[in-house]
């Protein structure tokens, strides 16, 4: 009887733990909320863009001057990748 209760407790703990893990991963995909971020969330650099206009649009869609996680605006003037065509 004691072994049965211990087994049931372990099984219950595994089920609850699995549910918690699945639930936290399901809600952590922020790229679905912000389609301008790539699914891989990899760091973007100026060579990743074909034109300055494309880089600027990405920059503004992802926070603009108030938030520059990709460090595209090195001089802080609000214009990114100024050497691109």
Automatic annotation (TrEMBL):
Span list, region Disordered: 24-85
Domain Excalibur calcium-binding, residue spans: 42-82
Compositional bias per record (Low complexity), positions renumbered to this chain: 24-36
TM region positions: none
InterPro entries, sorted: Excalibur_Ca-bd_domain
Basic and acidic residues biased stretches: 41-53, 68-85
Top-level division of the source organism's lineage: Bacteria
Name recorded for this polypeptide: Excalibur calcium-binding domain-containing protein
């Amino acid at each position: 009887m004691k072994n049965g209760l211990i087994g049931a407790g372990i099984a219950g703990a595994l089920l609850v733990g699995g549910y918690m893990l699945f639930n936290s991963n399901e809600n952590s995909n922020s790229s679905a909320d912000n389609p301008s971020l790539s699914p891989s969330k990899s760091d973007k650099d100026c060579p990743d863009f074909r034109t300055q206009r494309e880089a600027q649009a990405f920059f503004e869609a992802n926070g603009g001057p108030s938030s520059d996680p990709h460090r595209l605006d090195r001089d802080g003037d609000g214009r990114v990748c100024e050497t691109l065509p």
